[in-house]
Design goal:
Elements (H helix, E strand, L loop, with lengths): L12 H10 L1 H12 L3 E5 L2 E7 L2 H8 L6 E2 L8 H4 L9 H11 L5 H5 L2 H12 L7 E3 H18 L14 H17 L3 H8 L12 H24 L9 H9 L17 H14 L2 H16 L1 H11 L8 H5 L2 H13 L9 E3 L3 E3 L2 E3 L4 E4 L1 H5 L15 H4 L20 H18 E5 L8 E3 L2 E3 L5 E7 L9
Parallel strand pairs: 2-8
Antiparallel strand pairs: 1-2, 3-5, 4-12, 5-8, 6-7, 9-12, 10-11
Amino acid sequence: MRLPNGPQKQSFLYRRTIEWIFRPLEFLETYAQRYGDPFRIGGDKLPLSIYFSNPEAIQQIFTADPELFESGSSNRVLLPILGENSLLLLDGDRHQRQRRLLTPPFHGERMRTYGQLICDITEQVISQWKIGEPFNVRSSMQEISLQVILSAVFGLHDSAAGAPLARQGERFDQLRQILGSMLDLISSPLTSSFLFFPSLQKDLGAWSPWGHFLRQKQQIQELLYAEIESRRHQPHQSGEDILSLMISAVVSEAGRDSVLEAGQPMTNAELHDELLTLLFAGHETTASALSWALYWINSLPEVQDRLLKELNTLAPNSDPSEIARLPYLTAVCQETLRIYPIAITTFARILKSPFEVMGYEFEPGTALVPVVYLTHRREDIYPEPKRFKPDRFLERQFSPYEYLPFGGGNRRCIGAAFAQFEMKLVLATILSRFQLSLCDRRPVKPVRRGVTVAPPGNMRMVVTQPRHQDTPVLI
C-alpha cells in the first residue's frame, strides 16, 4: 500500500504525543512543511493517521458515505468529561437519531428567540467592568457563554415580551460555578495531559489533580440528574428549552418520538451525557472565539473603527437579527475563526472499509484527519494567511471544504449557527458600550486548552472609557 510521506522512525510516538499536547500548531506546521500534503503519522504496526489540508481531499472525505467511517471511537479522549452516551462518541444510527433530536433548538426561529437573552446576559456581565481596572478576558467571555448555554439548555422563566428573563435558581448557579471550575482544571497543556494519557488518570484523593476533577464531575452529575428527575415528574413539558424538548420527544402522547426507535426512550444516563456535551461544547469554544475576536479588534484600530461605523448605522433598539446580518461584523467573526480555529482538526474518520483519497488507497483502521488549521493557512486560498483580514470574506465565498471551523459532513457541529449568532451579538453589545484596550500589546500566541486551542488564559484588557451616548443601543 502506497502511503503519503511521514517520519520513517516510528519509535518516538510518545515524544510526538507530547509535541501534539504542548505545541499543536507547530507540530502540524512542521510536519506539513517536512512531508507535504497529505502527511502520515504512524504505520508499521502503529495506528496510522493521515492528515489532509487539500480541499479536494476534504470534500472526498466529507461527502463519502458515513457508513464507511467510525468517528466516535476517535473521540475517546473526551470520555472522562462527557460520558459514553455523548453525541461526540456515538456512531451510526444512534448518532443520527441523537443529532436530529438536538439540532432544531440551535437553528431558525428557536435560535433567534435567544437573541435578546444573549444581549441581556452580556450587559449584566460587562456591567461589572470598571473604568481603569483590568479584567480577565477569558473569564468574562466564559461567564457570558456559560450563562447563555445554561439558559438555552435549561430554560428561563418569564417569557413576557421585553421582560428580562430570570435565572433559574440555586441549582444552576451551582452548576455554572462547578462546570467552569472543572474545565479550568484541564485548561493548561500540562493538565490536558491527563486526557491524552489514561495512565495518569489516577484518583489519589481529593487534593490530587484527577481526584479533584472526578469529585467536581460527581457534583455536576448530581445536579444534572436532580434536574432531569424534576423535569420528568412535571405533568406537562411545554418549555422551549432543550431539556424540555428532549424529554417531550421521549414521552410524547404517541409514546415515542419519531426520532427515537419504538421502545427505546432516552435514559437518564443518556440525557445526562447529552446535556453535559451541550454545556461543554456550547460554551468553551464560544468563549475562546470571543476572546480571540476582542484581541484582534483591539489590536487593529482600522478593524475596530470600521466595526464601530457599521454599528452606528443601526437604529436605536435594533432587533438582534438585524445586528447578526451586519456584513463587516460577520466577516470579523469569520476571520476570527479562520486565523486561529478553536478546533484545529476535525473529528478523525476511522475507516471500516478500503477508501481512496487523492490517489491513495487506505486500508480499514486508518484514521483520516482533515486539518482545519492548515487548510485555513493555505496561501492559494487565503493570500497573506497570517494577516487578520476580514475583507477576504466580503470579497468571495469559500466552500465548506476551504473554510471549516465547525468541521463538516455528518459530524459538523450542530451549534455552528448558534455560536456565530452569539458571537455577533456579544461583540456588538460590548463595542457599543465600552472602549477597551489590551493591557499588554505584545502578540498573543495560542495555547492548548483541553482538546482545543485558545488564547492564553491570562490575557487582560481594561475599559478606557464608555462609548458616547449617541452610540446606538443594541437591546
